[in-house]
Design a protein that fits this description.
alpha+beta; 12 helices; 29 strands; elongated
């Protein structure tokens, strides 16, 4: 039917049923249709205090610049441009769509939230995610056979799954670089005691074990991902692992399909009966079963070892990262929605990142890192001498391994992106210095072990001659790094104190001083969580150790 047949005349906008009031020359909401002609609004009521009557577009087929007044005269009205009428109508419609869409978005986000599986790690991981700090996430790939799509890969249908693939992902505080450190599953190490949450809400401590394969940190004896996190922290000398993400065999298939496949390259053709990888030499795009076969195979590579498989996995992950940042993924709404749906179903995470909005934040922070600055490394290891002639397992090569962990803990890049920044920071330590007796500083504990401010004060006064110092207890705020704030005219004092205490240049913060107990300006030293004790330098390595690595922008052929 046309507008008249529905009770709408030329003076009515059918999108919202507003009509022209000839007495006022303005549009008002129609109270009911008039048969056979234009609807006339009800008598205009005074507006309530503090409210405004909405503006509406003009009538169709009529000139709003003129309206018939009582008595038949025509009076002039200010003309509303066609563009303005369209804008008003469009904004009203858009507001309705957004209001309706907001409910749909909420329901969809709620649906994605419901997809996510979380694990309570009983304090092994952080309760929240910070976008302002460096962060470490342990990526765990399990060999779990139970569940949809997994039973075809072996007869361990009831097994919990072990930590088959393990990557410690460190994202720098300034988001210029990231490091992905692979930890071999066959590494023999010590697994610590591990509190685990039981189905009835109680806590059970699973006893640790010495000289055990790393992959048994998950699944064995009922160990959960929190146990794997604790094992990595022990291996790394206490460095904090903030969160974990865990996926099984089926997740690899669904995620690679969701992004439209991952480009890989082979130095030679492969037809592996064990993993069922069947690809020609050169580049290929894999997804689903072939993607899983690529990351699982090891017999197709030179030494048929897990270390060779790790190299292939690193190449695969670099390509996956490039694909996820590509225009074909980011500009396709259907692909992005499919990826969100698949990822939330595929991943098990800790409660600190167990919401879709938090996972989105993690992804956006990682997206800031250029592929050329994402370094892939493998933990330095040696053959386990206990194996004899048959090399089944490996042990940590402690020197190089701890250098890597130290660099990660100190947020040192394995690429050259921080070269200029390091030079700028080092410049802070160059220049004249004050005598120790002229250094005035107030000390606060801002996350260091209890009593650190007092012991450091005593050490500075009795052993270093910094007699114009005082400690004022806890700062009331917890910070991960130790900082020394000073006024511009205290730069020489700051350099001297940094040298005496072994503070890195990054700890020096030009800013303001405060009045000490004598009313004199004093620098402010806040001992953070990284403070190890009086006399123990905090200066980390100026550059990363020399190790074999690849970056996410490199395209290599697996051999």
């Amino acid at each position: 039917m046309d507008a008249q047949g529905r009770g709408w005349g030329d003076d009515i906008d059918p999108s919202d049923q507003w009509v022209l009031n000839p007495e006022t020359g303005e549009y008002e909401l129609r109270t009911g249709p008039a048969a056979g002609g234009p609807s006339v609004p009800a008598a205009r009521q005074p507006s309530a205090p503090g409210t405004r009557r909405p503006s509406v577009p003009g009538p169709r087929g009529a000139d709003p610049a003129e309206a018939t007044a009582p008595g038949g005269r025509r009076k002039k009205k200010a003309r509303k441009s066609t563009g303005k009428r369209i804008l008003l109508w469009t904004s009203g419609t858009l507001a309705f769509v957004l209001a309706a869409g907001a409910g749909g978005v909420y329901l969809y986000l709620k649906h994605l939230d419901d997809n996510i599986t979380t694990t309570d790690t009983v304090g092994a991981t952080s309760d929240s995610f910070s976008k302002d700090k460096a962060f470490n996430i342990l990526l765990i790939g399990t060999d779990k056979r139970a569940g949809k799509g997994n039973t075809r890969y072996g007869d361990l249908e009831d097994a919990l799954g072990h930590a088959d693939t393990n990557i410690l992902l460190h994202v720098s505080q300034d988001r210029t670089n990231a490091t992905a450190l692979s930890i071999p599953r066959d590494l023999v190490t010590d697994i610590p005691d591990c509190p685990t949450r039981q189905s009835d809400g109680s806590t059970k401590v699973i006893a640790g074990s010495a000289g055990t394969r790393f992959n048994e940190s998950l699944g064995q004896l009922g160990r959960d991902p929190g146990c794997t996190v604790r094992t990595v922290e022990r291996l790394a000398g206490g460095m904090k692992v903030d969160h974990f993400m865990m996926a099984d065999f089926n997740a690899v298939k669904t995620l690679t399909t969701a992004v439209g496949g991952v480009q890989v390259c082979l130095a030679h053709a492969v037809k592996d009966k064990e993993s069922h990888l069947d690809l020609p030499a050169g580049p290929s795009k894999v997804q689903g079963e072939q993607a899983l076969a690529f990351v699982r195979t090891r017999h197709s590579w030179a030494h048929e070892s897990d270390l060779d498989r790790i190299k292939a996995q690193q190449q695969f992950l670099g390509s996956l990262f490039r694909q996820m940042k590509s225009d074909s993924t980011l500009t396709s709404p259907s692909r992005l929605m499919g990826l969100a749906e698949t990822a939330t179903k595929a991943l098990t995470v800790d409660k600190g990142i167990g919401h879709i909005t938090t996972l989105k934040d993690v992804a956006l922070e990682l997206k800031k890192v250029p592929p050329k600055n994402i370094s892939f490394l493998t933990l330095p290891v040696k053959d386990n001498p206990a194996d004899g002639a048959v090399h089944k397992t490996v042990v940590e090569d402690p020197g190089p391994a701890q250098q890597i962990f130290s660099s990660i803990g100190d947020d040192v890049s394995f690429t050259e992106v921080k070269k200029k920044q390091k030079a700028k920071e080092s410049a802070k330590l160059k220049g004249p210095r004050s005598a120790p007796g002229d250094v005035r500083v107030d000390l606060y504990n801002a996350g260091a072990p209890g009593g650190s401010a007092q012991t450091t004060l005593s050490w500075l006064q009795t052993q270093k001659g910094v007699t114009k110092s005082s400690q004022l207890g806890n700062s009331g705020a917890h910070q991960p790094k130790t900082t020394l704030e000073y006024a511009p005219d205290q730069a020489a004092q700051a350099r001297e104190l940094a040298d005496l205490m072994g503070l890195p240049a990054s700890a020096l913060k030009p800013g303001h001083s405060e009045k000490n107990a004598q009313g004199l300006p004093a620098m402010v030293l806040r001992l953070g969580a990284d403070f190890k004790g009086a006399g123990i330098p905090l200066t980390g390595p100026a550059k990363s150790p020399s190790v074999q690595k690849t970056t996410a922008d490199e395209v290599k052929c697996a051999s």
